[in-house]
Amino acid sequence: ARFKTVMSGQGPDKVQKVIALFKESGVDVWANGLKEKYSALANHHLEEIPIQSSRKDPLKHLVRFLIQRDH
Length: 71
What we know:
By secondary structure, this protein is mainly alpha-helical. Helix content is 80%, strand content 0%. It is built from four helices and no strands.
């Protein structure tokens, strides 16, 4: 109910209110857990590919960038 109320609003603090709801409900922790799980899985599969490590480096850097960003 609160989420629908916040989403139907048009105030300048709408984004902050949605972020607060996500944090209150634990969505941020849940999403970070999934992010770590799937990035580890992706890195594992990348290591299984039989090519030179130097050719994998750009993908590894991309994974780190995507995981570490805040938005």
